[in-house]
Design brief:
This protein is 83% helix and 0% strand. By secondary structure, the protein is an all-alpha fold.
Amino acid sequence: MTDESSQTVRSVVLSASALGLVWMGDGLLGIVLPLHAASFGIALPWVGVVLSLSRIVCIFGYGWIGGLTGRFGGKALMVGAALTAAVSTFLYGLAQGLMLLLAGRCLWGLAYGALNVLTTVYAFSDGKTAGRLVGLSRAISTLGNAIALSGGALATAYLGPRDVFLVLGVIGLFAVPVSLALPALRDISAEQATRSRSRWKPSLFNMLFFTLMVAVDGSLPMTLSLLFAQRFSVGSALLTAGLILAALRATIVIGSLIGGRIVESIGANRVLGISVVSITIGLLGVAAGFIYTGTGTIIIGRAFLGTVGRVLVAKQTGGTNVERASAYWSWIDCGLAAGPLVVGALFVPLGPTGLYSLLALAVTIAFAAYAAGIVRARTAVVAPTEAL
């Protein structure tokens, strides 16, 4: 391995590790808060608002990341975001009422936006689009989330729903020295890059990933604990949901490690198609009442999405790496923010069957539109060639 390659891998490992360390608190809050809202001093209807707020803040924050990176540098922004994220986790543990929770979610939204975009850019900042580096980054960053969902759910039973976040806040502080060890971030300069499209201009690619995030990462974590609470005690429901979501994150880790090679072998869009079909079947399975097999099928399909999405973003043209990644994550987090709101509005009137059937239909339509767009684009390229 050359010195340059070794430096690139080191950058990927460090940046992803920083994100993974601070991601623990956010991951655990999604399953703890719906079942322990009273312990945090809020009513259940506020849970969806609290969980969605960070995504809303993050969405608007993405628009500032390019300018802040150009002014202060990617490394300095990573350090500041890591510290801010750790503070947000401490606030979850200290919260006894709505205001501190909202403050913590606002801080997390700002920090996560910067960490997520910059971690993505570190994965292809050398100008290459190798799926293996993207997969490695995704695997490492997701590992912390998986650990929190499994071990954190168990620790909640012993430490309590609030004190567990104080422990995770201490762990998150280690992301600061990890970020300090990063090299300076290399990116395409504004002079070299072609003009980027507005990050809010919808594309079939962005709409597909928006819909997938609404259906999977936005809705599944919140509904799982509620579904299992209908069958088990609150403690058992929390532990079961935590273990399933931990399995989701663990599968993403494995899928990210092997997904890069698979993407390079058979193509990103083929892997994307297989993932979407698996997710759709899983959503229909949950709708039919097969919670374990349905979520298992969703987990398998979800495992490769992170790698595929990043690889497809890296292949896009227009704008700097930071600008393209910011646009991609803006639509991802729009879906993540909309998910809890959709669940809060439709879970009771539609029930699990109606809600998951509707999500499966939305994913199917979004992917059909994306696939049709690819066919049209290829036809437009081939047709002039045949005319000549």
